[in-house]
C-alpha cells in the first residue's frame, strides 16, 4: 500500500471466458492442469468496477503485481461482465484454477458462492476471497478488515475539519459491508463533536445496479450533500467515489477517499488538492501475503482479519494539510490508542 500515516500502522460461456482470459495479462502458456498446488502464478477475478477503480480492485492489482515480480511467475486478472450470474463466476474461477494459477482470488464478497463451490473441486489450490468470512473450507482464506476502525478515524477528521458543522457520507451499495464504513464514520464524528450533523446516502440497493461503478451517481449524491451544507464528504463507493471527489473539488470542499491513498493516484490528480485523506485498507497486502504463504508452502486459510493494530487499516497522510494539522494528528493518535486498547469500541452497524 502506498504511504500511510504512523497512526495506521493500514464470459458467460466457456469459449467466451477462455478468450477473455487469453486477452488478459500474465503468462502466455496457459496449459491446463489438475490444480496440483504447483503455481504458475497468481490470479484475480475482479469485483464490479474492475481494474481502474482507483480503489478496491486497484489495490488488489498492486498486490498481485508485487507477488508476480517477487516470485518471478505469471499473473492473470479477469474483469467481471455486466449482469453475470454466480454460474459465470464459478466458470471463471474454475478456468483459472484448471490453468494452474495458485492462489486464485475473488475480489469481493459477491464471489462467496462461487469460491465455496470451486474450492471443493480443486482441493490442492488455495483460494482467497476479499470481504467475506462465510466460507469454512480447508483451502480458502477469508480476507476481511475492520473498516469501521479506519472509518472512525475518518469521522474524527471530518468533525475537526468541518466549518459548516455538516459532513456527508456516500455509500456505494446499501449492504452490511458498507454499513460498517457508515457506522464507524458516524461514531467518530459524534464522539468528537456531537453538534456535527452527518448526512448519508447509499447509491443503490444492489451492486448490479451500479453503486460501485457509476461516477455520475456518486457525483450527483455528493452535489446534493454539498448543497445541504456538507463541507467534508467521505465515500465508500468504489469507482463511484471518483464522482464524489470530483464534486467536492468543484465545490472546493474536502473529500475523504477510501481503500487506497486516493490523493496519490494519477487518475485523480486533478482533484488531489481537495482529497484530505483516505480511509485505507490493505487489500494489496492481503493479496500479496496470501500469495507468499502459498509460495512458502504454508497457505493461509480461515479468517484472516486486518485491523488498525495490525496496520491493515488506517488513514493516508499524503496531503500536507492533513499531515501538518497538529491538533488533528493529536486527536487521531488518541483515538487510535483507544481503539487499539479497547477503550473505544467501534460499532459495525
Characterization of this structure:
- The structure is a single chain.
- With 349 residues, the chain is α/β, with parallel strands linked by helices.
- The chain folds into 2 domains: 14-145 and 283-306, Response regulator (Rossmann fold, 3-Layer(aba) Sandwich), CATH 3.40.50.2300; 147-281 and 319-341, Response regulator (Rossmann fold, 3-Layer(aba) Sandwich), CATH 3.40.50.2300.
- The protein is built from 11 helices and 12 strands.
- The chain has helices at residues 14-23, 56-71, 86-98, 112-121, 147-161, 176-192, 215-227, 241-251, 283-295, 320-323, 326-341, and strands at 41-45, 74-78, 104-106, 127-130, 140-145, 166-173, 197-204, 232-236, 254-259, 275-281, 302-306, 313-315.
- A 6-stranded parallel β-sheet has the order 2-1-3-4-5-11, with helices on both faces. A 6-stranded mixed β-sheet has the order 7-6-8-9-10-12, sandwiched between helices.
- The radius of gyration is 20 Å and the shape is globular.
- The relative contact order is 0.17.
Uncertain stretches? 1-37
Number of DSSP-assigned strands: 12
Identify the quaternary structure here.
single chain
CATH architecture of the largest domain: 3-Layer(aba) Sandwich
CA-based gyration radius: 20 Å
CATH structural class of the largest domain: Alpha Beta
Percent range for helical residues?
25-40%
| Anisotropy-based shape | globular
Which features would summarize this protein structure in a list?
single chain, 349 residues, alpha/beta, Rossmann fold, six-stranded parallel β-sheet, six-stranded mixed β-sheet, 19% strand, disordered N terminus, signal, BMP_lipoprotein, cell membrane
Amino acid at each position: 500500500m502506498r504511504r500511510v500515516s504512523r497512526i495506521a500502522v493500514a464470459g458467460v460461456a466457456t469459449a467466451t471466458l477462455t478468450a477473455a482470459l487469453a486477452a488478459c495479462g500474465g503468462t502466455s502458456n496457459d496449459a491446463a492442469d489438475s490444480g496440483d498446488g504447483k503455481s504458475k502464478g497468481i490470479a484475480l477475478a475482479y469485483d464490479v468496477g474492475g481494474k481502474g477503480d482507483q480503489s478496491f480492485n486497484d489495490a488488489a492489482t498492486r498486490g498481485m503485481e508485487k507477488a508476480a515480480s517477487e516470485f518471478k511467475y505469471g499473473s492473470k486478472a479477469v474483469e467481471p461482465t455486466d449482469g453475470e450470474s454466480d454460474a459465470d463466476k464459478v466458470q471463471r474461477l474454475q478456468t483459472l484454477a484448471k490453468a494452474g494459477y495458485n492462489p486464485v482470488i475473488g475480489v469481493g464478497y459477491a464471489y462467496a458462492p462461487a469460491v465455496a463451490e470451486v474450492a471443493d473441486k480443486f482441493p490442492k489450490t488455495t483460494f482467497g476471497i476479499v470481504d467475506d468470512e462465510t466460507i469454512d473450507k480447508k483451502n480458502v482464506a477469508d480476507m476481511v478488515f475492520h473498516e469501521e476502525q479506519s472509518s472512525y478515524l475518518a469521522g474524527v477528521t471530518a468533525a475537526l475539519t468541518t466549518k459548516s458543522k455538516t459532513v456527508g457520507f456516500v455509500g456505494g451499495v446499501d449492504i452490511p459491508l458498507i454499513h460498517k464504513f457508515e457506522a464507524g464514520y458516524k461514531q467518530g464524528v459524534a464522539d468528537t463533536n456531537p453538534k456535527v450533523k452527518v448526512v448519508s446516502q447509499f447509491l443503490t440497493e444492489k451492486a448490479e445496479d451500479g453503486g460501485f461503478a457509476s461516477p455520475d451517481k456518486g457525483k450527483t449524491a455528493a452535489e446534493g450533500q454539498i448543497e445541504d451544507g456538507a463541507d467534508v464528504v467521505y465515500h465508500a463507493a468504489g469507482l463511484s467515489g471518483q464522482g464524489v471527489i470530483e464534486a467536492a473539488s468543484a465545490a472546493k470542499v474536502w473529500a475523504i477517499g477510501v481503500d487506497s491513498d486516493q490523493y496519490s493516484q494519477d487518475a485523480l490528480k486533478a482533484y488531489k488538492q481537495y482529497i484530505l485523506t483516505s480511509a485505507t485498507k490493505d487489500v494489496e497486502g492481503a493479496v500479496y501475503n496470501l500469495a507468499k504463504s502459498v509460495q512458502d508452502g504454508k497457505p493461509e486459510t480461515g479468517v484472516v482479519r486486518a485491523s488498525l493494530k495490525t496496520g491493515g487499516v488506517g488513514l493516508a497522510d499524503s496531503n500536507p494539510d492533513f499531515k501538518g494539522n497538529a491538533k488533528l494528528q493529536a486527536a487521531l493518535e488518541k483515538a487510535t490508542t483507544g481503539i487499539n486498547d479497547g477503550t473505544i469500541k467501534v460499532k459495525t452497524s
